[in-house]
Design goal:
The chain contains two helices and two strands, in the order E-E-H-H. By secondary structure, the protein is mainly alpha-helical. The longest helix is centred in the last third of the chain and has 27 residues.
Length: 87
């Protein structure tokens, strides 16, 4: 593999070129905002396992923040508002 491309709504390009990896979703960033990905990062990078009391707290907090973010995006889209995110 030499390159990766995001999966769009067009026909797959990965089948025509062995040097391409095509993501299973629209953008590579989508792979990192999934609960399973967070769980793996907590385990492998932070050594926080499911036995640790912080594990579920972190996962629940992540899910809450994703819901809040999506709600802001939806509000922005439906009400045509400009939402400024403060990070």
């Amino acid at each position: 593999m030499m390159f990766f491309i995001d999966r769009d709504f067009d026909d797959s390009l990965a089948m025509t070129n062995k040097d391409l990896f095509e993501t299973p979703c629209h953008s590579v960033e989508n792979l990192y905002v999934q609960e399973d990905c967070l769980k793996e990062i907590l385990k492998s990078e932070f050594h926080i396992t499911i036995a640790n009391s912080d594990f579920n707290k972190r996962v629940n907090d992540f899910n809450l923040r994703i819901k809040e973010f999506n709600a802001l995006l939806l509000l922005n889209k439906t009400k045509k508002l400009i939402v400024t995110l403060i990070i």
